[in-house]
């Protein structure tokens, strides 16, 4: 990855201005055949255009017209180990960076490596989540999008983080325990079942699903792309940037399956929307309501699916 330096930008601007001045000088000379007049006009144009450009930029810097501020958010992924929350979080963070937004990723495993003495008792976990939540709130206050993925098994800790953050989006990655165990390449679940690991969430320690999650995802029934697009849609909805709604004909080809398991046709009042009805999942749910949704597309629709790590 390369970044253009300020010096390079200045040199490009000056070289373009010199080229324009040379062209003007040659045009004047071609019409008048007077070298002194041509050089004078070229010099005046060079200085005046630089001054006018500086004034033009300063004036636009003071105008708010066309500037759209994107309020940052704390996107908090919670779920069992192996549920796919880190995989989705990485995709979401990359998507936000692709939109030229400031993003910081906070991952449970990475942070525990920095603080190896942090235990796994309820008190230790609550204190750990509280510290990370406070850090996330400070990053948010400074205009940074925070994408955090933690098991975060207790409701009280999640409620604390929601309370200290201004724009908190909680994503419950509700992948079934059996699927999480199948994906466990480290064998942690097997060790926990044998009693070799104490206080292991989902086996010897409870996981309390967040009752007020803004989005619930079951990664056993969707691809990484679908899950990531649903999260991005939720972020855009919070940021006041609604997707361009799908057409009625596109809606008719989308089946939304809610957490109750009952297939439901998207209603036109839901505003089931997406960047493209044929290439990305839609964002379904009643306006302003929290929802758990899986979007399926017709078999004729081509979607590149990425599998979650096993």
Write a compact overview of the structure shown.
Helices cover 45% and strands 12% of the residues. The chain has 310 residues and is of the alpha/beta class.
Polypeptide structure, described:
It is a single chain. This protein has about 300 residues and is α/β, with parallel strands linked by helices. Helix content is about 45%, strand content about 10%. The chain has an eight-stranded mixed sheet, sandwiched between helices. Helix 1 packs antiparallel against helix 2 and helix 5 packs parallel to helix 6. The longest helix has 28 residues, at about 35-60. It is elongated and about 95 Å long. Mean pLDDT is about 80; it is low at about 240-305.
Brief descriptors of the model:
alpha/beta; Rossmann fold; 2 domains; eight-stranded mixed beta sheet
Helical content (DSSP H or I, runs of 4+): 40-55%
**How large, in whole angstroms, is the Cα Rg?**
27 Å
At the fourth level of CATH, the homologous superfamily of the largest domain is P-loop containing nucleotide triphosphate hydrolases
| Spans where pLDDT lies below 50 across 5 or more residues | 241-305
**Which series of helices and strands comes N to C?**
HHEHEHHEHEHHEHHEEE
Strand content: 5-15%
CATH class group of the largest domain:
Alpha Beta
Query: Largest sheet, if any?
Result: 8 strands, mixed
Mean pLDDT: 79
Q: Strand pairing plus helix content: what structural class? A: alpha/beta
